[in-house]
Amino acid sequence: MSNILDTLKHISEEITNEADWGQPAQYIPELAEIDPAQLAISVCTADGKTHSTGQSDKPFSIQSVSKVFSLIAALGRTGDQLWTRVGCEPSGTSFDSIVLLESERGQPRNPFVNAGAIVTTDALLSGREPKMALAEILGLIRAMAEDDDIHINAEVAKSEQRTGERNKALAHYLASYGNLLNPPDLTLGTYFHQCAIEMTTVQLARAGRALAGLDGAPNILPALRARRLNALMMTCGHYDGSGDFAFKVGLPGKSGVGGGLLVIVPGRVSIAIWSPGLNKYGNSKAGTRAAARLSRSMGWSVF
Ligand code: DON
After folding, report:
1. Ramachandran angles phi, psi of 152, nearest 5°
2. Is the overall model pTM greater than 0.95, yes or no?
3. Which run of H or of E encompasses 168?
4. What CATH number is associated with residue 139?
5. CA proximity to 105, closest of 203, 176, 12
6. Number of domains within the chain
7. What domain range includes position 249?
8. In a domain, 303, yes or no
9. Measuring from atom 4 of ligand 1, which residue has the nearest CA?
10. Domain-embedded: residue 19
């Protein structure tokens, strides 16, 4: 497997030389000032080993990558009933769009756009205190990564709570259609805190093993559920950039505005990439290029 490491080093050098990083998320003040010229990649293989380049032990804000974990937790709690409240179709809209909610009577297209993730978190909350739902998500992530050193950055959560007018609008709009069962502020508080979870690329790659169905992965996800999650990540994981990601990378993935990417190579490896500058869709700019080159060099596309 030593050629994985050589490939990672080569890609990292190329991307660094190109210096085409994009800009970090500007609408979350705590993230806006991060130096975009950073790249970390970790690949976790079936034997549980990780191969990494860059600052793979530096925690970053996972943001929307958390939506994969909250979805797993919510499905564990409510089962397939969740699909009566949120769809599983690509939206073709930006992650924070409200536009389809009116014609589709408050049912978000999928659990990865913000509206769908807010409904998913609401289902997970189901009348409990936010700290209970957050403990459930954190516990799940720690179990999937087999690492307890994973935490929420309260400053990042507060920063978004102060400025997240769009998400507040989405939550209240969902509530107006009866698709929020908890008070909007409680659901939003939970959602902002789940987005503020920090992980390193090593931890995130390890957490992806169950999704990749790797032999040594903790037994957390039934195979059918993992397959469906991968299908959703492939079709919806990058919002209106999902087709572009599938075209260039050919793998299921989930992005976050913190610049993180979780990319799954079913049956083979789990990949985590972090580079905080974003492209026009709000996904990691250099990270997406790195994923495309890695998939191509290793022959990992599912197509
Ligand atoms: O709700 C938000 O806007 C952020 N907490 C998360 C959005 C996000 O990560 C979109 N992904 N690229």
Report:
1. -95, 135
2. yes
3. helix 165-176
4. 3.40.710.10
5. 176
6. 2
7. 2-62+199-298
8. no
9. 63
10. yes
